[in-house]
Design brief:
There is one protein chain. The chain has 124 residues and is an all-alpha fold. 66% of the residues lie in helices and 0% in strands. The protein is built from three helices and no strands. It is elongated and about 140 Å long. This is DUF3618 domain-containing protein.
C-alpha cells in the first residue's frame, strides 16, 4: 500500500465521520429547509397558474377585487355597529309612575254623560 492510498483512506474516513455528524445533528433543520423549499416551490407554481389565468380571463381579477372590497366593507361596517352597541350612552332619566286606566262599565250600570259640565244648562 502506498502513501497515497493511505491518505485517501484517511480522507474517506474523515468525510464519512463529518457526514455522519451532519446527519445526526441536522434532521430538524433539514426538515425545516425542506418545508421552506416546498413552500417556495408551491408559491412559484401558484403565481405561474394565477398569472396565466389573469392573462386569459381579466374579468376574474376584477370580480375578485370587487368581492374583496365588498367583504372589507361588510367587516368594517359590522365592527362599527358592534362598537356603537357597546358604547355607553350618558344622559338623564326620570321615573314615570304607571297609572291605571279607568274601569270600563259593562253597559248595565250607569251611563256617563259625554257632555262637559260647562256646557250644561242651569235647569237642573
Amino acid at each position: 500500500m502506498s502513501r497515497l492510498d493511505s491518505y485517501t483512506d484517511k480522507m474517506m474516513d474523515l468525510v464519512g465521520q463529518v457526514g455522519d455528524n451532519l446527519r445526526t445533528s441536522l434532521p430538524g433543520s433539514a426538515g425545516k429547509w425542506l418545508q421552506t423549499g416546498a413552500a417556495l416551490g408551491a408559491a412559484k407554481a401558484g403565481t405561474r397558474v394565477v398569472g396565466t389565468l389573469v392573462r386569459r380571463n381579466p374579468a376574474v381579477l376584477v370580480a375578485a377585487a370587487a368581492a374583496a372590497g365588498v367583504a372589507w366593507y361588510a367587516v368594517n361596517r359590522h365592527r362599527r355597529k358592534q362598537e356603537a352597541q357597546d358604547a355607553v350612552i350618558e344622559g338623564q332619566s326620570r321615573r314615570i309612575d304607571a297609572r291605571r286606566a279607568p274601569r270600563k262599565t259593562s253597559g248595565t250600570g250607569t251611563r256617563r254623560s259625554t257632555r262637559s259640565k260647562a256646557g250644561t244648562s242651569g235647569n237642573e
